[in-house]
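TASK: fixed-backbone design
INPUT:
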C-alpha cells in the first residue's frame, strides 16, 4: 500500500512560531513521526511539502495511478482553494483531510474547507496524532476493513 502525505504552506516552519497552536515539534519531527506510523501500519509512505498551490495540484495529479491514498493537510489553502478540490476530484484517490489544530474552533474564515467534499474524512485538533489517526483510517479503508 502506497500512501502520500501532502503538506501545504508554512508547515515547514513547524516549531518556530505559534507553539500554543501547532506545538513545539519541528517539521523534521513530523516526518520522523509519519515514518514511524508507516512502519506501524505496514505502508510505504512518501511525504511532500510545498508552499505553492500549483505545485500541490501537480503533486496530486502525479499521484494518479501511483498512490493508493492521500493524507492531506492543505494548511491555509484549505480555506481558499477550488484548484485543490478539483485536483482531488479529478484523480479520485481516497483522501483524508488532516489538521494539527481544530480550524472550527478558530477564526471564522477557517471554518470553511474547500477540499472537504473530496475527502473521506477529516481528522483535526490532535496535533501530530491527527496524521496517525488519518493514516490508520485510510489503511483500514483501503484494506476494506472500514466504511466511510
Ligand atoms: O491546523 C492545521 O493543521 C492548519 O492546516 C494549519 C494552517 C492553517 O492555515 C489552517 O487553518 C489549519 C497553517 C499552517 C502554518 O503552520 C505554521 C507553523 C509554524 C509557524 C506558523 C505557522
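OUTPUT:
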Amino acid at each position: 500500500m502506497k500512501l502520500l502525505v501532502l503538506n501545504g504552506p508554512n508547515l515547514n516552519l513547524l516549531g518556530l512560531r505559534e507553539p500554543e497552536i501547532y506545538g513545539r515539534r519541528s517539521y523534521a519531527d513530523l516526518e520522523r513521526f509519519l515514518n514511524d506510523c508507516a512502519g506501524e501500519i505496514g505502508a510505504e509512505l512518501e511525504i511532500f511539502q510545498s508552499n505553492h498551490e500549483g505545485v500541490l495540484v501537480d503533486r496530486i495529479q502525479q499521484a494518479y495511478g501511483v498512490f493508493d491514498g492521500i493524507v492531506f493537510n492543505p494548511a491555509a489553502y484549505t480555506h481558499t482553494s477550488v484548484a485543490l478540490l478539483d485536483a482531488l476530484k479529478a484523480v479520485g484517490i481516497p483522501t483524508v483531510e488532516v489538521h494539527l489544530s481544530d480550524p472550527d474552533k478558530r477564526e471564522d474564515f477557517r471554518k470553511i474547507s474547500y477540499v472537504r467534499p473530496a475527502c473521506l474524512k477529516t481528522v483535526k485538533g490532535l496535533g501530530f496524532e491527527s496524521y496517525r489517526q488519518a493514516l490508520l483510517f485510510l489503511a483500514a479503508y483501503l484494506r476494506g476493513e472500514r466504511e466511510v
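COMMENT: Residues 10-11, 13-14, 16-18, 22, 73, 75-76, 78, 99-101, 103, 110 surround CA2 (CB under 6 Å).
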